[in-house]
Amino acid sequence: MAKPYQKRAMRNFRSAGNSAVRFTGNAASKAAVGAFKWAATDHLEFGKSLDRMPSMGILDSLWYILMLFLIQIAGAILAGVLMFGLIAYVIPFVLFGSI
Q: 0.85 cut: is pTM over it?
């Protein structure tokens, strides 16, 4: 049979562990809630700018979306070409001197 002071010591360890887990859980919960609230906040006030923007017709909206899509495709192609040039020409030149 365990001595009384050993039981008390084990209870103290258990309660210390429980309080540490509870504190960690509360802190993590508060951090997650704060992070999600910050992420959901409109920091750039984009909602206000959408309210102030004049309304466009359906064809103007589709044209605007198409132009943005084409600009993004062109940017992706340009980024691919620049990355190819970096990997194929610049890195070997830096590592091995003139080719």
A: no
